[in-house]
Amino acid sequence: MTNKELVEKSPLRSFEQSLHGGLGKGNIGILASLKGLGKTACLVHIAVDKLFQEKPVIHVSYSSRVDYIMTWYEDILKEITKDMDPGQAQEIRDEATKHLVVMNFKQEGTKTEQVLKSLEEMIEFGKFAADTIIVDGYHFTAAAVQDLEKFKDLAGRLELEVWFSASLRGEGPHFDENGIPFILKDGLEAIDVLITLHSKAHFVRLDTVKDREYPPAGELPLKLDPRTLLIAE
Fold first, then answer.
1. Phi and psi (nearest 5°) for 221?
2. Taking residues 150-157, what's their average pLDDT?
3. Exposed, middle or buried: residue 24 (CB in 10 Å: 0-12, 13-18, 19+)?
């Protein structure tokens, strides 16, 4: 199987179709849920799909070490290529990770401007023409609305797709009557696509609660397998 076949057969094609072609350049997407439902796995799966298309990805982690994040990528790449010839599978995995950079920051004590400057320097001066930025472990309760708007500005200026995870912590309720997490309501104007994850008996459900100017699709025709942590139809 080739990279092209992996891309064509990926359930993320249905994901993109549900989002009217995908997130799109200059846009901010957020996956929000309670802790432990697979947001990081979803983000990595989205990133791996980009890597298979030879579209460079920068993964920004605010909570985990670089080696821990790389383990996520290795595990998901191995799961996707497990039925392939071992030599070909390793070649595909090696080629994919050539297009990946992982960066680690501590949100406490690190200004958003510093993070954005590092990203911009990597892209423009480091000649790493990123297509997508993944931001994981970002605490929205510890950030100002203006910080998200600054990420939005970067996405627009450099024509990037930017995906965040948002963990809903503490006692509920966590969602308003429209399914929007309370911690994201103040920054909703800067968010283009908002997807929430919900645990069910044998899978994790994905719901679209905001999709730019389109009416939100609600439950997506996809689910997250809690065993493999892969998006599946």
1. -80, 40
2. 97
3. middle
